[in-house]
C-alpha cells in the first residue's frame, strides 16, 4: 500500500481528540503520527485513557509547529475556544493543512465572535481563509481547502435539518424555533459542578437560553442559504446520557407541503451523501440510532391543524458533531471518498 | 386525634397507585384502608413491591363498589384509559367521592375523547359532573367537589407554565409551541420494547408527534382561559431517567414585556399557592429540583432579538403530575389546607 | 406544641448536609435553626440548591461555636475528614451535643486513623468520648450520649448484614469477603474526573481495593462482636447511579445452617428495630427498594455445594448511610422513639 | 479481492445477532449474506432496527437449512436456549460450519444441562463434536473446528481472569468466589418487568444467586484446568447500564505471590493474544475501557493482611462476551488471524 497521510492531533486529552484517535485507528489512508497535549506532554496517552492501552503506546508531544510539521502533513485542532485563534496561523505558516474543531474560525464577523464567545477573535485574514466544513452543504468549497473550520455539534444537527427547507422556501425562516438536547460529553472533559454525575443523573436541564455561542453560527448559515438575515430561537438542554444530540425544530410551512414533500425534498438535496439518512413518513429518529457513527438522521411531521412542520435531526455529537465530520472533511480535502474510514455501523443497543 | 378519612386506591399495582400509597402514608388526616387491583387481587401488595415490606402487609382487594364503600369514603382511580369511564359511575352511585387520575373524564367533548384516545367515551352526564382538578387554576371549583378528574402529567407542567401569560394577554396564543420531555415512569409499568432498559438508556427519542392524547386537554384549558379557540404544537420526548417532566414553551410576546414582567405576573397569579415556585430572573429550573415533591417550578427568558418568550416548567410526573396533585385535590375537596401531607422537600441529589 | 429542639448543621452545602435539611424539615420535634458553611457563609442556601427555594430562605452562617450555641442545642457535623477532629471539641466545650457524620471519631486507635486516613487523628480523650452510633448494635450506649460518631455508609450496610451471624457464630469470621457497590453521591459534591458524568455513566468500576478507609471501621466492630481480631477482604465499586449501597458478603457457614436459620437469627436479633427488614427466603433486596428511606434490607442464600452463605444488604447511602442514621441517633440521644421523622416510604420507582 | 466467506445469522433480531451484523459489516474477508429470524421473516431488518437504515436493506429470511446452505458457508446461531440444540444438527448435516452463541452445547454433561437450564439437552454426539470457543485457552482446538460452542458472557470474563492462576497453582481453587456484574443487554431484548427501564434505572440488584446457568460452565473449565473438581461461589448482579461485565474474583493465594507475580504470569500466559490486556500494578480496569471492543482487560491486587488476591476482569458482554468472540472463533476456524475485523478501539467516553 502507498504511504499513509500523516496526521497530528492537538488536544489529544479531550473527548474530541480521543475520538479522533479512535476513528483514525481504522482509517485506510491516514495515520496518527503525533498526539499532542500542552498540559500533559511527556506522559503516555494511555495513562489518562486506559482504553488505549496497548493500542497507542506513544507519549504525548508538546505543541511546536516546527516539530509537528516534521511529523505530520495535516493537523487537527481539538482545543478549547481561543487556542486555535492563536495557534492555527503558525501551523499554516509551517506548511500544514489545518482542520480546526473549535469555534474560533466559524464566524465570519470578528465582532460577532467577541460578542458570543467573550474572547478576542482571530485575525480577519485567517478567518477569511477558513472554509466552513459542513460538507453536505458546502462540499464544493471543502474539496481542495487547506484550512477547514469544522462546524459545532449543535449547528451540524440543526443545519442539516433546516437547510434544504430554507433553501427551497418550504418554511418561513422567521418562524424557526430550535429546541436542542445534548448528552453530557458535549460539555467536554473539564470537571465542575455542571458535569458532576450526581447533579446530572436523573435530571434534565435547560442552559444558556438565548445565549449559546452556536446561535450566530446557525444564523450565519441560514442567512446565507435564505439570502436574507435570519434570526432564530435556540434553546439547549442537557440529557442524562453521554453521547447524542437531537434538534427538534419547528417552523411554519410556506405553501402546501406534506411530510412526504419534505422527505422528497431532503432526499433529493442529500442525494449521494451517505451520512444523511432521511426517515420514511411516520417515523423520526432517536439518538441511539446513530450512536458511535457519522450519520445524521432526519424525520418529519407536518401538522395540518397548526400549519407547522416538526423536524427531528439526530447525530452523535462526538462523531458527526466533531471528530467524524472532521475526518470527513480530511477525506474531501485530500480528494478521497468522503466516507473513507467512517463507515461504522451505529452501536445498538 | 379524630378519625382519619378512609381512602381506597384502585390500580394499586401501577406507578400512580403505588405513589399514592407512598405519599398518603404520611398524611395526617387520611389513611389508605384498601389497596385494590383486579389483576392481582388476593396477593400481598408487598410481594410485587418489596419496598413496601413491613409497611403495608395487607392483601390486594378486588374491585367491588359495595365492598369499597364499606371500607372507604373516597376512592382514587389510578387505572389505564377506558377503565374509569365504566367504573366511576358505579362508585359515585355507591356514595363514594371519586378522584380519577386517568384521562377518561378530562375532555368535555366525547368526540374529542374518541378521536384522541381511540376508545369509547364515558357518559356525558358523568363527564359534566367531573371537575378538572388543576387546583391553581380551577381551585374554587375543586373545593366541595364530589368528583375530580385529575389533570394529565404533561398538561399540568404545561398549563401552569402558560395560563397566566395567556390570561393576561402577554403572549399570542396562536404562536405557542410546546416541546415537552418526560422520564420513563410516565409510560407506566407495562413491559414492552418501548420501556425496555437497553432501548432507552443512553437514548433520547421523540414520540407521538402531533398525536399525543394530552393535546386536546391542553387546548381545552388554554381556549377556556383565552376566551377563544387555541391550537398548539406539542411534541413529547422520552428522557433516559425515571421521573420528571420539563415543558419548554415558546410564544411571541404581545406588547413590551421583559422576563421580570413575566415573573411579576406569575408571582401575582400564583400568590398563596405553595406548590408553584417562580424562579428569579436569569435562572430556570431543572427536573431534579422538584424530584419526589409536589412543586411545579417555572422560569422565563425573553429574547429581544426574536420577540419571543421561552418558558421552562418542571414537575415530578408521579407527584404533581399524578398522585401528589390528586392528594392536593383530596385536601381541597375535604376543606383542608391543600398542602396537607404534601410538604416534601425534593430529594436532591 | 412544646418547643422543638434546635439543630445546627455544619457542612450544609455538601450532600450529607443537604439531606439532613430535607429529612429534618418534616421532623416533629426538631428544627434546623442554623445552616452553616465556612466556604459559602453569607449566601442564601437556596442559591446553590434551588430545590430549597421558598423552603429555606435563610443565609448560610459561618462556623463559630459561640454563635452556634446561641442558636442551637445540637449540632451535626457533615464535614470532610479532618475538620471535625478540630471542631468537635470546641463545640462540646461550648455545651453542644454533637453528632459527627465524618470518620474522625470512628476509629478508637489514633494510629489506625492516621494509617488509613493519612491525616492527623483527633485527641484521644475526645475519641474515647465518642459513641459509635450504629443504633441497632450499640443502641444502649447511644441513649443519653452527648457525642455520637455516626458510622460510615459502607460499614452501615456491611455491619448490619454481618453482626448477628458473627455474634452467633453462624459464620467463620476469617472467611468474610465483602464486595460492596455504591452510587456516586457517596463520593460527595466535589467535582473531579472521578465524579465526571461522562466518565461514570455507562461504566462500572472498582476503586481503592484493600485501601478503603472503611476497612478498619468494619473490622473494629466485627472484632468487638467476635471477641477476637477479624480481618476482612473489602472491595468497593462505583455504580452508575446516584444513591444506594449494596454489600454482597460471603462467608463459610459454621455448623449446619440454612437460609431459613439465618433469617430467623436476624429477625430475632433485630426485633423491635423498625429500620432493618429481613427478606423472606428465596429473595434478596435491591437498592431501589430502600431509596430515600432509612431502611436497611437484608437477604440470604446458602449454597450447600460450597458451604457458604451469601448475604445481601442494601441501604440508601445518604439516609441510613448518613443523614437518616444521624437523625435516628439524635432521636435516641434525646430519649425519643428512634423512628421519629424518619418513617419515609422508599420512593419507587 | 478474492471472494468473501458467506455468513448467515440465525436470530438476527436479538442483541447478539444485531451485534454480529455491526461487527461483520467491516470484516475484510467475511460478509453477511442472510439475516434470519423465524419470528419476523419477510420484514426488512431495518424496520425493527432503524440504526441499520440504508446499511442493510434486505428482508429477514426464515429458518431453512437448505436455503441457508445455498446462501452461506458458515452460520451463527444467536438464538435463545433450547433452539440450537434442535437446529444445529440439521445445519451441520447440510454441510455448514456452525458457531453457536447459546448455552446448548457448552456443557459436556447432558444431566448438568438439564439441571441448570431446565430444558432437554442436545444429543450427546453433537455435544461431543462442539469445541468450546474460548480461544485464549482452547485456541488449538478451535483452529480447524467445524462446530464451535461460543462461551457465555460471564464465563468469558471470569475464566480469562482465573485460568492462568488456577493452571499455575497460584491460587487455591476451593476458595474462589466470583462476584459478577452485568449491564442489562445481557438479559436480551425480551420485554418484561425484569428489563423495564423504570425498575432498573437508579437500581442495583442481585439475581439468581447460586442458580445461574453459567456456574457449571465456569466449573467445567476450571476443573479441566485444575485437573480436579472445582466448585465455586458465583453471584450475578444487574448494573444500570447497557453494556459491560465485570467479574471481581477472590481467592486465597497459594505460596508467596505478589500482584507483580500475577501480572507476570498472566502476561506470559496470554502472550501473543491481542485481546487480553493485563493492567500495570496498582490499577484495575473499568467496563467502559473495553466498551464496544473485543478486549478483556484484567487487573490484580494482593492483600498481605488476608493472603487473598482480588482479580478484576472486564469485557463488553455483546462483543468479547458474544458476537466479537464468535467472530474471533470464525477467524480461527478459517485459518485467519484471530483479530481480523475486530480491531475496534473501545468507544470512550
UniProtKB/TrEMBL annotation, chains A, B, C, D:
Record's InterPro entries?
AGPR, AGPR_AS, AGPR_dimerisation_dom, AGPR_type-1, NAD(P)-bd_dom_sf, Semialdehyde_DH_NAD-bd
Q: Does the keyword Transferase apply?
A: no
Q: Tell me yes or no: is Phosphoprotein among this UniProt entry's keywords.
A: no
Which residues are named in the active-site annotation?
153
Instruction: Give the E.C. number(s).
Output: 1.2.1.38
Annotated compartments: Cytoplasm
Primary site of residence: cytoplasm
The Swiss-Prot or TrEMBL record annotates one GO molecular function as:
N-acetyl-gamma-glutamyl-phosphate reductase activity
Q: Which Pfam families match?
A: Semialdhyde_dh, Semialdhyde_dhC_1
What are the protein's UniProt keywords?
Amino-acid biosynthesis, Arginine biosynthesis, Cytoplasm, NADP, Oxidoreductase
Q: Which residues form the Semialdehyde dehydrogenase NAD-binding domain?
A: 6-145
Its pathway?
Amino-acid biosynthesis; L-arginine biosynthesis; N(2)-acetyl-L-ornithine from L-glutamate: step 3/4
Q: Which GO terms describe its biological process?
A: L-arginine biosynthetic process
Q: Which family does it belong to?
A: Belongs to the NAGSA dehydrogenase family. Type 1 subfamily.
Role according to the record:
Catalyzes the NADPH-dependent reduction of N-acetyl-5-glutamyl phosphate to yield N-acetyl-L-glutamate 5-semialdehyde.
Q: What is this protein's record name? A: N-acetyl-gamma-glutamyl-phosphate reductase
Q: Which gene encodes it?
A: argC
Amino acid at each position: 500500500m502507498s504511504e499513509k497521510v500523516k496526521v497530528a492531533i492537538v488536544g489529544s486529552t479531550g473527548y474530541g481528540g480521543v475520538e479522533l484517535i479512535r476513528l483514525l485507528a481504522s482509517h485506510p489512508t491516514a495515520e496518527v503520527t503525533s498526539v499532542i497535549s500542552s498540559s500533559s506532554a511527556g506522559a503516555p496517552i494511555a495513562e489518562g485513557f486506559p482504553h488505549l492501552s496497548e493500542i497507542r503506546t506513544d507519549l504525548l508531544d508538546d505543541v511546536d509547529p516546527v516539530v509537528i510539521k516534521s511529523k505530520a502533513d495535516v493537523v487537527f485542532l481539538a482545543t478549547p475556544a481561543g487556542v486555535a485563534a492563536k495557534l492555527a496561523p503558525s501551523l499554516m505558516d509551517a506548511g500544514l493543512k489545518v482542520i480546526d474543531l473549535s469555534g474560533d474560525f466559524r464566524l465570519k464577523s470578528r465582532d460577532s465572535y467577541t460578542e458570543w464567545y467573550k474572547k478576542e477573535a482571530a485575525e480577519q485574514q485567517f478567518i477569511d481563509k477558513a472554509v466552513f466544513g459542513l460538507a453536505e452543504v458546502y462540499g464544493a468549497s471543502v474539496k481542495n481547502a487547506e484550512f477547514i473550520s469544522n462546524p459545532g455539534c449543535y449547528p451540524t444537527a440543526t443545519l442539516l435539518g433546516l437547510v434544504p427547507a430554507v433553501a427551497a422556501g418550504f418554511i418561513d425562516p422567521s418562524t424557526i424555533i430550535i429546541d436542542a438536547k445534548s448528552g453530557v460529553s458535549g460539555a467536554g472533559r473539564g470537571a465542575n459542578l455542571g458535569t458532576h454525575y450526581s447533579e446530572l443523573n436523573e435530571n434534565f436541564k435547560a442552559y444558556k437560553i438565548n445565549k449559546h455561542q452556536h446561535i450566530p453560527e446557525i444564523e450565519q448559515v441560514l442567512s446565507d442559504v435564505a439570502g436574507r438575515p435570519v434570526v432564530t430561537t435556540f434553546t439547549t438542554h442537557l440529557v442524562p446520557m453521554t453521547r447524542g444530540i437531537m434538534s427538534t425544530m419547528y417552523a411554519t410551512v410556506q405553501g402546501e407541503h406534506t411530510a412526504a414533500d419534505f422527505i422528497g425534498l431532503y432526499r433529493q438535496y442529500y442525494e449521494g451523501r451517505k451520512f444523511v439518512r432521511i426517515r420514511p413518513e411516520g417515523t423520526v429518529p432517536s439518538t441511539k440510532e446513530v450512536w458511535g457513527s457519522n450519520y445524521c438522521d432526519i424525520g418529519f411531521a407536518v401538522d395540518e391543524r397548526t400549519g407547522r412542520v416538526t423536524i427531528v435531526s439526530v447525530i452523535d455529537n462526538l462523531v458527526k458533531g466533531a471528530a467524524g465530520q472532521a475526518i470527513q472533511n480530511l477525506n474531501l480535502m485530500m480528494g478521497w471518498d468522503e466516507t473513507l474510514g467512517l463507515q461504522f455501523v451505529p452501536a445498538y443497543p
